[in-house]
Amino acid sequence: MRPFRQIMAGVAAVGLTAAALAVSLPENSRAAPPLPLASLFGGPFTLTDHNGKQRTDKDFRGKFMLIYFGYTYCPTICPTNLQHMALALKKLGPQAKSIQPLFITIDPRRDTPKLLK
């Protein structure tokens, strides 16, 4: 769990630094204004699934994506959260067909498609 916290702390630090730099631009600066936060998320992606197949955002069009970032060597938090996601989908019944859960590893060196399968 410690590496995940370190990664998330690093992401937060980079985000805060970028926000601080954007705010500190002089008024007469010709630099473009910072992008809205919402524009930093979403957009096209390409990932490899557990069968080794390339998947893109287009594969999931028309569905809500329930994305979880984790890793297979996570001792407690990842399995527990994935179990919560599965339970929530089960409770939704037929409505769950409109939701595509995605597990995205933050440890691709160890979490190979073969291991994930």
Task: Describe what this molecule looks like in 3D.
The protein is of the alpha+beta class and 117 residues long. It has helices at 2-23, 77-92, 113-116; strands at residues 46-48, 54-56, 64-70, 99-105. The chain folds into two domains: 1-39; 42-117, 3-Layer(aba) Sandwich (Glutaredoxin), CATH 3.40.30. 36% of the residues lie in helices and 17% in strands. The strands form two sheets. The chain has a two-stranded antiparallel sheet with strand order 1-2. α2 links the parallel β3 and β4 (99-105). The relative contact order is 0.15. Residues 6-25 have low confidence and may be disordered.
Low-confidence runs = 6-25
The largest pleated sheet is described as:
2 strands, antiparallel
**Highest CATH level, the class of the largest domain:** Alpha Beta
Counting structural domains, the number is 2
Order of helices and strands: HEEEHEH
CATH topology of the largest domain: Glutaredoxin
List keywords for this structure.
single chain; 117 residues; alpha+beta; Glutaredoxin; 2 domains; two-stranded antiparallel ribbon; two-stranded parallel ribbon; 3 helices
Topology of helices and strands:
Blueprint: H1 2-23, E1 46-48, E2 54-56, E3 64-70, H2 77-92, E4 99-105, H3 113-116
Parallel strand pairs: 3-4
Antiparallel strand pairs: 1-2
